[in-house]
Specification:
Elements lengths: L6 H6 L3 E13 L11 E5 L2 E7 H7 L5 E7 L10 H11 L5 E4 L4 E6 L3 H15 L2
């Protein structure tokens, strides 16, 4: 496995980047076929959760709350301990909800669109505070 595991380094080097694209989380039946590939599809017992750009969701006739994605640029190991807890606590302290998707290379935090700028500032401050 690759990626950084040291929490102090992860926090100091996380370099959060705000994606300007608004996203929608939608739920669809398991057999639902999209006309565009979603950013993510996750199967749950009740149905599949899709993450689509707002534009693509509208093309599909789907709606939901609007989120923005913040990607942590540091290559975190999937086995790293504490990173999710640290940035979740930071966002909690600012009253910002977070939906987290861990990719192989990076963590992606989906926050309500109305809170995106505040979330980015909070995460940048956490990173700066964590630098040696």
């Amino acid at each position: 496995m690759s990626g950084e595991r040291n929490l102090a380094r992860l926090l100091a080097e996380m370099t959060p980047v705000l994606d300007p694209v608004p996203y929608i989380f939608a739920t669809v039946p398991h057999e639902y076929q999209t006309t565009v590939p979603p950013l993510m599809r996750f199967q749950e017992v009740e149905g599949d959760t899709l993450i689509l750009s707002q534009r693509e969701a509208e093309q599909e006739g789907l709606s939901g709350a609007v989120f923005q994605r913040i990607t942590l640029s540091v290559h975190s190991a999937l086995e790293a301990v504490g990173l999710t807890a640290a940035f979740s606590a930071c966002l909690t302290d600012h009253g910002i909800s977070a939906n987290v998707v861990a990719g192989y290379y990076h963590d992606h935090i989906f926050v309500p669109q109305t809170d995106a700028d505040r979330a980015l500032l909070a995460l940048r401050a956490l990173s700066q505070y964590s630098k040696p």
